[in-house]
């Protein structure tokens, strides 16, 4: 039986791990390579690295960092941030990334998803979707969550999967960094709408939030940052909690 | 020990090279038939789509070289599937070393496709799985699978059982990513190097 995955996310800026609240007010959270190695040791199922300054400053993710991470890491990892061309993806995969996460470039030109899936295979193409609840509707945001797109989240997720995304990384900006729990209704709606795995992100605070997002939310994986970086909930403790609660996890 | 990793522009080669490096083994990435024939072990990683991978093998003549190799050979992920006879993925004829036909998973509410993530291994057989148990998990990412047959040396389920590993003579294949499967994957890779 396939297990539910726990995925620490490392937001990286200028070679350091940082974390904010609702995408702002960043705090330093350490050296990404040391954190990656620690999480792998503690039982992380995958890791995600997001170069969070890349989109707004049009800077390419650091392939050197990717290479150093790949050298030490024996679990899969995804790299995202500012990816806008086939050449960007090729450079990251050649450096040792297992998957790439695209966001703004896919919104600007959805056919980009299909081109990447045809060239590299759907298995390594993650489409990241940042959604914000505005007057009862989940709206898709772009450019690191700074601009509305006019798209509705569930419809965009379905379109991305149809175009060849192998996985969706669904972030509720309204929940990000608040530690008030995941967006269960949004996660459930997307999970029911697409045949590909869904990673829920934004709002993890308590172990029970994870039980809820796997059961009520129907998520295949859950991503979190703060609770892991700042040692609020250790991964082994969380996994044991989920296992005891009847959630299938890899111990 | 000389380890060759088949270079056919089709796989997540870097991860496999790093995994070998972590085991203290140095490997040569090559498409040269002589280097492949002389190696003590050959690894054949693969990702992506079956038809373009076969096209790439034919373009370099490797489709005729690989089946003649006699040393321990390990196909990984798509590299395992290519050892079969045929894939449903774009109706593609494969290398024909093992008698299986690759099929696509059908998604349902509880079983997403791709089959992506950690799954436990069952019905383990043979030296590749020495030291492992059915409690061990390995990492899978694939939408197509080889059914269970006489050649199957490990199974996983999604939801029906499929071949997680296969073997015929010196040709071994694993559907999962040994190089990305934590301590369990490292053990399997080390077992292969010790064959």
Characterization of this structure:
The complex is a heterodimer of chains A (251) and B (195). Chain A is of the alpha/beta class. Chain A has eleven helices and twelve strands. In chain A, 37% of the residues lie in helices and 28% in strands. Chain A has one domain (5-244): Alpha-Beta Barrel (TIM Barrel). In chain A, strand 10, helix 8 (184-193) and strand 11 (198-201) form a beta-alpha-beta unit. Chain B has 195 residues and is an alpha/beta fold. Chain B has a single domain (3-193), classed as Class I glutamine amidotransferase (GATase) domain (Rossmann fold, 3-Layer(aba) Sandwich). Helices cover 24% and strands 30% of the residues of chain B. Chain B has helices at residues 13-22, 33-38, 50-60, 62-65, 78-81, 182-193; strands at residues 3-6, 27-30, 41-46, 73-77, 86-87, 92-93, 101-104, 115-120, 137-142, 144-145, 152-157, 161-168, 171-174. In chain B, strands 2-1-3-4-13-12-11 form a seven-stranded mixed sheet. Chain B has a four-stranded mixed sheet with strand order 6-5-7-10, covered by helices on one side. Chain B has a two-stranded antiparallel ribbon with strand order 8-9. In chain B, strand 1 (3-6), helix 1 (13-22) and strand 2 (27-30) form a beta-alpha-beta unit. The longest helix of chain B is centred in the last third of the chain and has 12 residues, at 182-193. Chains A and B meet through helix 3 and helix 4 of A and helix 1, strand 8, strand 9 and helix 6 of B.
